[in-house]
Specification:
The protein is an alpha/beta fold. It has two domains: 7-218, Rossmann fold (3-Layer(aba) Sandwich), CATH 3.40.50.300; 226-316, 2-Layer Sandwich (Alpha-Beta Plaits). 37% of the residues lie in helices and 27% in strands. It has eleven helices and 14 strands. It has helices at 45-52, 74-80, 96-106, 111-124, 140-151, 170-185, 197-200, 220-227, 244-248, 270-283, 298-316; strands at 7-16, 19-29, 34-38, 60-65, 68-69, 81-84, 158-162, 189-194, 205-210, 213-218, 231-236, 253-259, 262-267, 290-294. The strands form three sheets. The protein has a six-stranded mixed beta sheet with strand order 6-7-8-3-9-10, sandwiched between helices. Helix 6 (170-185) links the parallel strand 7 and strand 8 (189-194). The two termini are 36 Å apart. The chain binds adenosine-5'-triphosphate and magnesium ion. Residues 16, 21, 39, 41-47, 86 line the site of adenosine-5'-triphosphate. The site of adenosine-5'-triphosphate has 11 residues, from helix 1.
């Protein structure tokens, strides 16, 4: 298997003892794509990334990253990709410059390019005034940009970012995504994991991974319009939290959750459910409510897919 794709895996599996962390997943990432990998804690995101980066050998399955085989060519992969781990692998005791020098060495940047690349990282990270400071004193957003700079100092064509924005303030998150989009515009493939739904919207395509399985894959628009079988109603009502339990008792309401100041209810069929819910609310003497069908948010889609996966799993047991 030789691949034209930036990333391609077939039946990729990782077991730790008897526990299956990644369960024979198959997918491909196009060159220049921003590919989001989403899933709750322990879903298998980091384990998958580590296999793709040549750090961890799969139990079975096969795959290529940038044309290199993930089992036989792990060293070539490590040299050719950028990897930013969940813990931002920076040395706190080193200064900003020393960290950059360290990664220049690992990636064997040529002597004539070293200085130029270092300045590029420092400028990209906005660390001009802090180049001689110990990394330990940097705030989260700066550390994050320095970690990204170090991960891409060798100008890789494929970059893996494992929760690059966790624990970083909203402004830094937004700036970080501007950088990511710029990289993609220049042809770099970005594979990124995140827990933030607003960030997922920036991805060209998203895979949702749960208990080691990919349970949905598509563009944000496809996921919202095609993949979710149920429909979502927005209910605007006074003291919405007081209504959650009562509305859940209605047979047509599959799920209900507070969403800002409103409720989002998942139903099989919006047209049939709206009159039933209206009758119920009128009977219960609710005043001033509004109810309408809305396009589901990505969060609605994911919650719904995960719930139905769990229900199916229970049935099989
Ligand atoms: N070296 C290991 N030995 C045993 N179990 C492991 C090992 N690494 C990961 N696991 C387990 O595999 C599962 C998947 O872990 P992984 O780190 O890939 O999840 P994740 O999706 O990245 O989660 P998070 O969002 O918390 O980072 C978890 O149950 C984890 O405990
Ligand atoms: Mg992880």
């Amino acid at each position: 298997m030789k691949s034209e794709k930036a990333v391609e895996v077939i039946n990729l599996e990782k077991k730790f003892g008897k526990f299956t962390a990644v369960n024979r997943i198959s997918f491909a990432v196009n060159k220049g794509e921003i590919f989001g990998f989403l899933g709750p804690n322990g879903a298998g995101k980091s384990t998958t990334i580590r296999m793709l980066c040549g750090i961890l050998s799969p139990t079975s399955g096969d795959g290529h990253v940038g044309g290199n085989n993930i089992i036989k060519e792990q060293e070539a992969i490590k040299q050719n990709i950028g990897y930013m781990s969940q813990k931002f692998s920076l040395y706190d005791d080193l200064t900003v410059e020393e960290n950059i020098n360290f990664y220049s060495g690992i990636y064997r940047i040529s002597d004539q390019k070293k200085a130029e690349r270092k300045e590029w990282v420092i400028k990209m990270a906005g660390l001009e005034d802090l180049r001689s400071s110990r990394t330990a004193i940097l705030a989260g957003g700066w550390k994050q940009r320095l970690a990204l700079g170090c991960a891409i100092i060798h100008e890789p064509k494929i970059v893996f970012l494992d929760e690059p924005t966790s624990g970083v303030d909203p402004i830094s998150r937004r700036d970080f995504w501007i950088l990511i989009k710029e990289m993609a515009k220049n042809g770099v493939t970005v594979f990124v994991t995140t827990h933030y739904m607003d960030e997922a919207e920036n991805c060209n395509r998203i895979a949702l991974i749960y208990k080691g399985n990919i349970i949905a894959l598509g563009s944000p628009h496809e996921l919202k319009t095609e993949i979710m079988r149920e429909e979502v109603l927005e209910i605007i009502i006074d003291t919405p939290e007081d209504w959650i339990e009562r509305l859940m008792k209605l047979e047509v309401v599959k799920e209900i959750a507070l969403f800002g100041n409103a409720l989002h209810a998942v139903v099989e069929n919006a047209e049939l459910s709206i009159p039933l819910i209206k009758d119920f609310l009128t009977n219960e003497k609710a005043s001033n409510y509004k109810i309408e069908k809305i396009e589901p948010s990505l969060e609605d889609v994911f919650v719904s897919l995960i719930e139905s996966y769990d229900k199916n799993e229970e049935k099989i047991k």
